[in-house]
Amino acid sequence: MVTVLSFLVAIAILIAVHEWGHYRMAVACGVPVLRFSIGFGRPLWTWRNRRGTEFVVAALPLGGYVRMLDGREGPVPDGQRHLAFDAQPLRRRAAIVAAGPAANLLLAVLLYALVAWWGVPQALPVLASPTPDSLAERAGIRSGEWVTAVAPAQDEPRMLRSFDELRWHLTRAALDGQDVRLWLADAPQAPGREVALPLSALEARDVDARLFERIGIVAPWSAPQVGEVLPDSPAALAGLQPGDRVLAVDGEPMTDAQQLRARIRVAVDDAGRARAQRWRIERDGQPLEVVVTPRAERQGEGWVGRIGAMIGAAPAMTTVSLGPLDALAEGVRRTWEVSALSLQMFGKMLIGEASLRNLSGPLTIADYAGRSASLGLVPFLTFLALVSVSLGVLNLLPLPVLDGGHLMYYLWEAVAGRPLSEVWMERLQRGGVAILVALMSLAIFNDLARLLG
């Protein structure tokens, strides 16, 4: 229920802001707006303002529209012909069309700024053990090291405040095919060392957990501690209890939860047979030894071990908060970076350098809406900002039926000195609908593939 409500609230806000951008620009340009609708189908609520605009909330909330006075869509009274949308100069029509995506991008700036000013609890940039045979392991990165700064290629180093910032820089650099330099230290103010991660060798196509496993930086450092234990699980059968600290597995000291999770996963052979492990734990200050036999579970084409318990204590956290002006600058910077990354991903998918599996649809959006809402207001606002950027960028793509497609028509009109012919307009509109249907079908397929594992 939380997922559905969160999704509906998010979609309603984003659509309302997008259409409000079109509406306000039309009013500013003197174009009468006949209807402002959130959703399609049977009206559930209507209201008319003094300008004569009918505001509607309709039954199907997945979309919206602004209907303006337009000679192409119906008869226009002679006395209002000069006010119709299709009678406006090119610059005004382009401004009205562009105002919708611009409103979504402006909303993202404000949301990111609000979150940055409010303050976000984030994990400190302290690294867990690198995954085996990863770039981080080969670079000599150790468990418990702080990442004090990061820089792609030959850029100036940027100081880090949280693990989330580190993941963001690694994501961008991996997709750009750029190597990254990290500055590591044993404590925040301790003398550090510089290491290089050759991310250009990854040829990253997907932004997922596998990408960070190949990089070797998956999660922040947390203690190798047992959390919630499920009934009748291998952990329960072994006698493990919440709060147990794991000191060693088969004689190998455990330095963090990431290392412990890795040992559990590999306790299964290629045939799905689990191997018993001898754990040395500490409970209430007393050392104990237990035998844990993970349960084999199919993952993709192979097998992994699971014990039915949460592994890892909560990582050390910090609250990242900025002043009002700095927060606004952060909102602009973050919106710009996410927009650029979104366009880059679209381009890479178009030319085959990124997997089409990165395309997400309404099911994934609904899933993340519910998850973010359950975590609190700040995660939900961050999610809302991200989707608002995506909606703004998507609508600016030069595809017919999208706002960017209409701007493409206006560009042709500005260059050729005449509008696009009705014949070509109809052909392009049909092609645009076909492309959008194909993209939506692919996105829903990807959603189902993710949800079904």
Automatic annotation (TrEMBL):
<dbReference type="InterPro" id="IPR008915">
    <property type="entry name" value="Peptidase_M50"/>
</dbReference>
<keyword id="KW-0472">Membrane</keyword>
<keyword id="KW-1133">Transmembrane helix</keyword>
<keyword id="KW-0479">Metal-binding</keyword>
<keyword id="KW-0482">Metalloprotease</keyword>
<dbReference type="Pfam" id="PF17820">
    <property type="entry name" value="PDZ_6"/>
</dbReference>
<dbReference type="InterPro" id="IPR001478">
    <property type="entry name" value="PDZ"/>
</dbReference>
<keyword id="KW-0378">Hydrolase</keyword>
<dbReference type="GO" id="GO:0016020">
    <property type="term" value="C:membrane"/>
</dbReference>
<keyword id="KW-0812">Transmembrane</keyword>
<dbReference type="InterPro" id="IPR004387">
    <property type="entry name" value="Pept_M50_Zn"/>
</dbReference>
<dbReference type="GO" id="GO:0006508">
    <property type="term" value="P:proteolysis"/>
</dbReference>
<comment type="similarity">
    <text>Belongs to the peptidase M50B family.</text>
</comment>
<dbReference type="GO" id="GO:0004222">
    <property type="term" value="F:metalloendopeptidase activity"/>
</dbReference>
<dbReference type="InterPro" id="IPR041489">
    <property type="entry name" value="PDZ_6"/>
</dbReference>
<feature type="domain" description="PDZ">
    <location>
        <begin position="226"/>
        <end position="262"/>
    </location>
</feature>
<keyword id="KW-0862">Zinc</keyword>
<keyword id="KW-0645">Protease</keyword>
<dbReference type="Pfam" id="PF02163">
    <property type="entry name" value="Peptidase_M50"/>
</dbReference>
<protein>
    <recommendedName>
        <fullName>Zinc metalloprotease</fullName>
        <ecNumber>3.4.24.-</ecNumber>
    </recommendedName>
</protein>
<dbReference type="InterPro" id="IPR036034">
    <property type="entry name" value="PDZ_sf"/>
</dbReference>
<dbReference type="GO" id="GO:0046872">
    <property type="term" value="F:metal ion binding"/>
</dbReference>
<feature type="transmembrane region" description="Helical">
    <location>
        <begin position="95"/>
        <end position="120"/>
    </location>
</feature>
